[in-house]
Amino acid sequence: TSLSLQPTITPELVQARVHLKCTYSHAPSKPHLQYVVLWSRLSSPGKREQIHRETTLESFSYVEMDGTNLRLGDTVFCTVTAFTRDAPEQQSLPEDSKGFYAGIKFLPESLQIAEDGKEHVLTVLSTVPIACPGQDDSCKITLQLRTEDLDSQLPGPPNIALSACQVDLLQGPCSESSCAAATVTVTAVTDFAQDGNRISHIRAEPVGQRDLLWRAHTPKDVKVTVRDLPTGNCYSFTDPHIITFDGWRYDNYKIGTFLLCQSVSRVFEVHVRQWDCGGHRSATACNCGVAAR
User: Fold this and answer.
1) What is the mean pLDDT of the chain?
2) Taking every annotated instance into account, which residue ranges of this chain make up the domain VWFD (predicted)?
3) Is this structure's pTM higher than 0.85?
4) CATH architecture label of 104-227
């Protein structure tokens, strides 16, 4: 039968090496049980690959993230069955832990933002503790961040801007599936172009790492969809004909400096300067200067 062992995977540092620990419940009514713990990793969607098997009297089992059999970026499971010494052929039903992703990841895993100037917080975290094998090493992982526009063949500025080019994950105690975390803000670049919704990726790469476990790890990219917003335009051209944001048209033949437009919600305004460019028969003014704040 099922013993409700409820196996759970948690990360730990053992002698400055990253390990995963599978913990499960003892059945109080059956004190002399032995346990078979099977460790496996997700090798492809829906398929698991066995990496370690152990029979133990303890209510826990360890496996090392060695960078070979078990690497950062793996999703790991532990499966536990129990039996008594006098009847080893009678095993309980195998019980699976939840899949534990070991490595660096972004939260949220994807973003949908608009060209409205708002900042969106992106958290990058490590689900496993950061080891400090040598005393001269600083206990951190430095991640280089870069963006990639998937429609880079289109002209214009990049789709998104980050508040930092790199972040540090500092060693600390693990809590709530995070052993180290940093934040960065993402903003959509307002390009004043009707170019439709565009897609970018944010990539993080560990830099300056001597430890193969971290050096070989490339976290999954964040997909950022930038929603295009309609851009308002106003015009003042030739002897000035003016078209406002809402399409209203009029002329201004006067000479001087004028406030062409001003925002009521932010610090933004445009001034135009007009000079005499008419003949003897009629007074006409033309644009000769512009200043924007």
Assistant:
1) 89
2) 232-293
3) no
4) Sandwich (2.60)
